[in-house]
Amino acid sequence: MDCLCTEENLSYLSGKDVINFRWIFSIYTDIYLIIVKKVTRFRIFEAESYSVAAWNSHKFTFDDKHLLLLKSFALFLDNYLSDMITQVNTTDLNSDTVFGSTFNFIMALSDFTHFVPVLLETEYPKYLEKWLSFIVKHNIPVDIVESTMIIINNIARHEQGAQALNDRHMLETLKTFENTAKSYNNDHPILPIYYMCYALLVPLKQSKELKQDMITGTIIDYLLNKIWEAHKSSNMRTNTANISEYLVVLAKFVVNDTVAIYILEKSKVAQYPNALTFFNELFFRCHKLTPDDLYLKHLVRITLFNIFSSFSFQKAHQKEIKSNEEFIHAVEEASHSTDDPLIHTYLLQHLSAVKDSAQCILINLDLYKDVASTATKQIPMISYCHKDKEFCRRLTKSLKDKSIDVWVDEDGHCLSVDLWEEIGKAIKNASVVLIIVSEAYCHSKSCRKEATYADKRQKQIIAIYVDDDYEAEEWLDIRLTGTYIRFGKKLFDDAVSRLLNYIPKSNESLIALVPQIIQHEVTSQSPNVQQPSEQKEQQSTTSLMNKPVQNWTKQDIDAWFNERHLLPQLYSLYSFEDGAELYEYATAFNDNILDAENKKLKYENLCASIKSQFGVRFEDYHYAKLVTSMRKLITDNSQVNFLRDNPSSV
């Protein structure tokens, strides 16, 4: 590149009119750019053969003259596009050629993630946002559009690159580009690249935006086809990219249940009977690796563990995943691994480590083996997303100021190098799990792992809402047992005081923790009040989940009321004779409360009925618990019916 860094050439690229014979410099620049681009491409292909150690140690140095050259390239491209838009005729007949060569060189440079920080330093995110705005507003040749999108995609793969692009409001500009992207035909993969860029840039807390039909119907099919195309090649590449590039994007999409279900139930991959069969085959191609294996193979392995982690949350497919004994053995081995190679975090902005993903899979499939604990006292455990750490710290301090000891991962409790092992112990030994519910929590795979484990351990959960108006995602909502505190606009200390009413003291069971006035009224009931028997140990949650509710006996209903910690008077009020009766009521109940006015009326009617028949107050948290229980009943039963009606899927 030194040959391009002469003062005269930099002046030419910067558009200065001080040099004669501009055509000579344009030809000179074009020739050298072609050479440098080929060398860069060669280095990129060479890097794909690096081991983990070689990749991590590989560095490129740019001195000031090279940085100045890259800035001059950006300025040259910017001037060219501006002239194109304003229809200014250039006297340099070779500018078109130089423009194409320059764009191709920057595209090749951005394809190597080691170079991305250099492009950030030379302000390419600023120019890219400007160029994309040009494309939205003007009729720009398709090859320029495609090159621009590819460079944005390449930079967005780097964590710092994604942040730099978002600092320039690239995500907002991308949204305005969607209709333009849809206007191109299939000869140019601009629409799939657009959605790949969008997926890499959108924060996970906004990833509900990825649930569009266009994504499941177009981009996911495109990604799956490219992954299959790369898989069938000997070097795991398509003609344009390594398989890891497509898998990294897919791993972010598949965090959404809508996308995961689409892949598992509706997508078609080549000749495979279903997508899960294809991913199983791909998994074993990169399962057993050593530190000397290719860096990109390790990256593929990480993404596949993350993808299977997302698959394992889907109840209708857990049995099929679990039935593959070879896969389960591989996951169990990975869950105990201590020698995973170091992968640069800038490639892993939304990926969990192999060990964490493996543990998540085992938890979801009810195969996780609890770690022995020496704890002698149960205390509340706080589960939260680290984006809410300031709220968590304030809550922890308030509880401790009131002599309530709590377990939180940053409070000196994690003494092991295995963070999840400590968190798992804390959940297992918790008197109650306090979940700080927020949008960030609902879109965190680690948080979902914690909430799922707490649910499977049948732990009582208290939902603590940071925002008054936020409603939890469905996967979390069905696990919340009804007791909740909304902080929001309330005085913080007042909300904490209310929370203290629901936190067990010492080793007290939360099932007995009812406001004193209600507890007194319950014990003084007339003999006619029927309450569910204490038989949680006799009837497991798992057995109820695997049995259609229509087939439940009265004993099963008894166990379900206990499991959900519903107000005992509800059991007596309803007196369901069998599961079919309970299911019909749950269906009607859920339909009835879809409307806010009906929901309020239902609550008022229940309050009146329970007060008149049993003399007990029906509180808002009792109602919330009933609502989430009825929703969970319908959701769980739909999964059981799917497995029963589609035996081939298991």
Automatic annotation (TrEMBL):
Ranges where the record places region Disordered: 524-545
Residue stretches making up the TIR domain: 376-500
InterPro entries: TIR_dom, Toll_tir_struct_dom_sf
BP term (GO), one: signal transduction
Record-linked PANTHER family: ARMADILLO-TYPE FOLD-RELATED, TIR DOMAIN-CONTAINING PROTEIN
Protein name: TIR domain-containing protein
Organism name: Didymodactylos carnosus
Source taxonomy: Eukaryota, Metazoa, Spiralia, Gnathifera, Rotifera
